[in-house]
Write a structure and sequence with these properties.
Oligomer: single chain
Structural class: mainly alpha
């Protein structure tokens, strides 16, 4: 009658690729009161039964309301499913409840970019202080997307100086985002847009000089 042996055996069989047996064991588990169980079962069923997986992820949040990790997993689920509104709502609630958790701040920035709000995403990232780690380039990627998004939005409004400012900012490597500048960063996309903005501002010489540099950049 205990769900725990079934759960542990399901994990072992899952690791061995014995998926039918894993499925049967997960379906036999009843009355579990352990958030990681629902996270694991949700991950197992997500591909074939995403609605069922969502229920498991939400149950994990309910059982472990004092932890941020289940919230992080729920936001990621909504993003994978293309559920932008639900992802943003879950991310806002998570950061409100756990404002000091960097992974949740990153979740919020990503969801804001997904719904087309780069300025708010940039404001969220301005408050992030992430320690250096191997996956920190993902955070920097969000930073670039946010600043470039602000720049493009300014270009669409013919606010050329503001566009240049945001695009130049996108080429920086803030240390608080957990990554340093590479030896040869690739900023050709931003420089191309900056050259276009400089043209519109009447700064033809600066734009031409930038394009000359672009033409010889590998």
């Amino acid at each position: 009658a205990d769900w725990k042996p079934k759960y542990y055996l399901a994990l072992i069989l899952w690791g061995k690729g014995r998926l039918e047996e894993t499925r049967d064991l997960f379906e036999m588990c009843e009355n579990a009161d352990f958030a990681p169980f629902y996270i694991a079962r949700g991950a197992f069923f997500e591909r074939d039964a995403p609605v069922r997986a969502a229920a498991d992820y939400k149950k994990a949040v309910e059982l472990d309301a004092g932890s941020w990790r289940a919230r992080h997993i729920l936001v990621a689920y909504h993003l994978r499913q293309g559920q932008k509104t639900e992802a943003l709502a879950a991310a806002r609630l998570a950061t409100a409840d756990f404002p000091a958790e960097v992974p949740l701040q990153i979740d919020l920035a990503e969801t804001l970019l997904t719904v087309g709000q780069p300025a708010e995403a940039a404001a969220v990232l301005d408050a992030v202080a992430a320690l250096p780690y191997e996956g920190a380039s993902d955070i920097y990627g969000l930073y670039v997307r946010a600043q470039v998004g602000i720049g493009i939005s300014a270009m669409q409004k013919a606010a050329w100086p503001a566009a240049v400012e945001a695009l130049e900012k996108s080429k920086l490597y803030p240390e608080r985002l957990g990554t340093g500048a590479p030896f040869h960063p690739d900023t050709r996309m931003q420089d191309t847009l900056i050259a276009l903005a400089l043209d519109r501002m009447g700064e033809k010489d600066k734009a031409a000089a930038m394009r000359r540099v672009l033409s010889i950049t590998p």
